[in-house]
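Project standup — Tuesday

K.O.: blocked on the structure for the chain from last sprint. Re-posting the sequence here as requested.
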Amino acid sequence: MITNTQSGTNIAEIAPGIYRINTPVPEIPGGFSFNQYLVVDDEPLLFHTGLRRTFPLVQEAIGRVMPVEKLRYLAFSHFESDECGALNQFLAVAPNAVPMCSRVAAMVSVGDFADRPPRAMNDGERLSIGKREILWIDAPHIPHGWETGYLFDTTTRTLFAGDIFTQGGSQNAPLVESDLVEPSDAFRMGFAPIGLPDSWAHLSDSEPIIEKLASLGATTLANMHGSSWRGSSETAASMLRELGRRVAAVPVAQ
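H.V.: unblocked you, prediction finished:
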């Protein structure tokens, strides 16, 4: 459903009670898009706030599903403008909402940046938001950011996978069942021709973190850029491991 005809912002339910809010950005060469995820429950959660300048678009889209003032948690993977640029704007319109992030993010950035103290999540911590329980997974530097972490909705088996499977393009389908490794890897390697390093941190010990994510049993991947994905837990795990192998195989200098 298109929620703003001028920007092309749209919203689609990708799993029961989980809505992908998408804003295409065709002016970026090759096209790009930004996604936020609204989780509707007794204590509604938004994963990614979007950029500060896109706040009115995201707020408008949320309003098509529920009153924005009922938001309780404003979660994000790592401290970056497209992840939490509009955090304080959402805090201003949702009086009971609090930021949700990793302990590291709370310590180094969010505790100072946010207008209300954050809920700092421990690795493996579970939180009930009503009918569903969410799990926080620390994943430093996957793909980047010391403070990076992810949420997993144990009820719908949805992994909010942030930037891991970033895809280019501005007209991506809300939900696909096709392979994500090839388009994500192509986007990652696409920075080399313009003289920039790829978007991954290239850890020497990334395999245990990738394996921790792969072992969750996700059947939906809620990605920040491009399409979300749905399929078997075995396929999701295989894609995570394969992308991790490809990253590890490429020297940083390339």
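K.O.: great, moving the ticket to review. The two ends are 41 Å apart (CA to CA). The first strand starts at residue 2 and ends at 4.
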